Amino acid sequence: MFGAGTTAVVTGGSSGIGAATAERLAGRGCDVLAVGRDTDALADIARRTGARCCAADLTSPGAADRVLAEAGEVDLLVCNAGVGWSGPLEVMPEERVGDLVRVNLLAPMLLVRAALPGMLARGRGQIVLVSSIAGSMSVAGEAVYSATKAGLDALGASVRGEVAGRGVGVTIVVPGVVDTPFFARRGSPYARRVPRPVPPERVAAALVAAAERNRSQVFVPRWLRLPARLRGVAPTVTDALQRRTT
Ligand SMILES: NC(=O)c1ccc[n+]([C@@H]2O[C@H](COP(=O)([O-])OP(=O)(O)OC[C@H]3O[C@@H](n4cnc5c(N)ncnc54)[C@H](OP(=O)(O)O)[C@@H]3O)[C@@H](O)[C@H]2O)c1
Q1: Which has more pLDDT, 228 or 34?
Q2: Percent of the chain surpassing pLDDT 70
Q3: Where are the beta strands (DSSP E) in the chain?
Q4: Which among 16, 30, 51, 145 is annotated as catalytic?
Q5: What pairing do the DSSP bridges indicate for beta strands 52-55 and 168-175?
Q6: Measuring CA to CA, which residue among 215, 220, 36 is closest to residue 127?
Q7: In CATH, what number does 7-244 get?
Q8: Pocket around ligand 1 at a 6 A CB cut-off
Q9: How remote is the CA of residue 82 from the centroid of ligand 1, in Å?
Q10: Confidence (pLDDT) at 232
Q11: Are 81 and 132 a contacting pair, CB within 8 Å?
Q12: Known catalytic residue at 190
């Protein structure tokens, strides 16, 4: 479905999950616009995969409209760019709170809002939001990150209801821990015993497959849907389990 003759926008296409997704889609003949700020990394992706590149800071005003104008008619919008921060909320710098909200939540809201009119007019399109197990489990020490990802889950579910029956689908991808520069960039390594990191290529494969089937939600690895469901009915149990695995 997402091959020759289709166009995809992948934010965070310069690194990790986004780079693996851009590579997977481009390898199938899809016209991919990889979005990020690191122009060297983007140029490398373009060289290796043939993807087009768009240097953009998604927190800057008007970025969503500029990205979509550069892409043309978009069949698949992957909102994947994200940043983390780890530590107690009371010592989190205000600037970092704003960064996380702007990159992880506000940017996807504006991108989806900008992409929908064209998708709805054409009667086709798929939106993918890359969330996190932190959004489902509400991780201590990642309060703002967890809140942005829970917000992304709510955004996706709400928009899915708004576009139902109009040819546009919404898929939420929920990775556990992925072996990318994410932890180095947030300034603290991954410190839990479980879940174990998976390669970004595995998330990319699950993302593309779920988008093609218009799945509403996919966990990577799949077993993570069990603690996420359990938290919905017994949060004190899963909170205690989380403390034991830290
Ligand atoms: N790694 C994990 O364990 C994990 C687990 C669950 C969910 N996730 C989620 O997966 C997504 C991808 O993360 P990753 O692991 O692949 O991390 P990553 O390798 O650090 O990639 C993050 C991407 O986001 C882009 N980005 C950050 N701020 C941006 C901004 N202001 N404007 C434009 N692009 C920006 C970066 O591009 P530039 O550097 O070019 O700006 C980079 O391409 C994120 O949403 C993350 O929350 C990750």
Answers
A1: 34
A2: 99
A3: 7-11, 31-36, 52-55, 76-79, 125-130, 168-175, 217-220
A4: 145
A5: unpaired
A6: 215
A7: 3.40.50.720
A8: 11-12, 14-18, 36-38, 41, 57-59, 80-83, 103, 130, 132, 175, 177-178, 180-182, 185, 200
A9: 4
A10: 84
A11: no
A12: no
Task: State the Cα–Cα distance between residues 65 and 63, nearest whole angstrom.
Answer: 6
Q: Considering only 88-92, 191-195, 196-200, 239-243, which range has the smallest mean pLDDT?
A: 239-243
- Two tokens at 209? 């497959």
Tokens of 28: 């199938």
Query: Quick check: 245 pLDDT over 80?
Result: no
pLDDT digits (tens, 9 = 90+) for 14-42: 999 999 999 999 999 999 999 999 999 99
Kindly report the protein residue whose alpha carbon is nearest to atom 36 of ligand 1.
12
| Residues 6+ away with beta carbon under 8 Å from 57 | 37, 63
Neighbouring residues of 53: CB distance < 8 A, sequence distance ≥ 6: 13, 33, 34, 35, 36, 39, 42, 43, 45, 46
* Other CB atoms within 10 A of residue 91 CB: 6
- 49-69 pLDDT, tens per residue? 999 999 999 999 999 999 999
